[in-house]
Amino acid sequence: MQSLEILTSVALGIGLAAAVGLRVFLPLLVLAIAGWAGVVPLSESFRWLATLPAVAMLGVAAAVEIAAYYVPGVDNLLDTLATPAALVAGTVAAAAVMTELPPIVKWTTAVIAGGGAAGLTQGVTALVRAKSTATTGGLGNPLIASGELGGAAALSLVAIFAPILALVLVVLAVWLAVKGLRRLFARRAGAAPSDA
Fold it and tell me: Is there a contact between 18 and 173 (Cβ–Cβ < 8 Å)?
């Protein structure tokens, strides 16, 4: 039974971290509300997330971040700032929910899996937004922002209520992103894209 609890907490952490790569503060807000409501247990050093001041602070930060991504030019600037913030927030989100692991294992897993998932997701979305800016002059960016917002909200909720499914979705998304990026770079190099 303990193995399943560990797998569930790691899956929850990775799912939330990947969502952080889409929007930094929204997944943390969802986690804070879930912790405050007693739906998700938090590690001892992260119990502050389950307080009303933390929920209020993250709510304001999430609202400002969401609105800012709809302002032309600001969205691309935010991608530059969000990349390091996503790495840190992804690590924090993952570590906060890995309650059954020894500290060294928890932090190693949080940094590698949590920070890695957040960084990869953020990197892919920054590339998509940059391509949208180049091809549409930024007119398509609000559509990208809406997709990221919906993805962050959905993945956060799936991670809270079905962590294993969230992990499967993250692995599938990573596979699709890597495959898409390989095709993109193959086209740029003038080679035919491979299906591998």
Answer: yes
Domain ranges in the chain are 2-188
C-beta atoms surrounding 3 within 10 Å: 8
Burial of 46 (0-12, 13-18, 19+ CB in 10 A): buried
Ramachandran bin of 134, using left for φ above 0, alpha for ψ from -120 to 50, beta for the remaining angles: alpha
The string of DSSP codes covering 73-141 is THHHHHHHHHHHHHHHHHHHHHHHH-TTS-HHHHHHHIIIIIIHHHHHHHHHHHHHHHHHHHHHTTTTH
Q: Tens of pLDDT along the chain (196 residues)?
A: 588 889 999 999 999 999 999 999 999 999 999 999 999 999 999 999 999 999 999 999 999 999 999 988 888 888 888 889 999 999 999 999 998 899 999 999 999 999 999 999 998 888 888 888 888 988 899 999 999 999 999 999 999 999 999 999 999 988 888 888 788 777 777 755 555 5
Give the other-Cβ count within 10 Å of 60's Cβ: 12
CA distance 4 to 8: 6
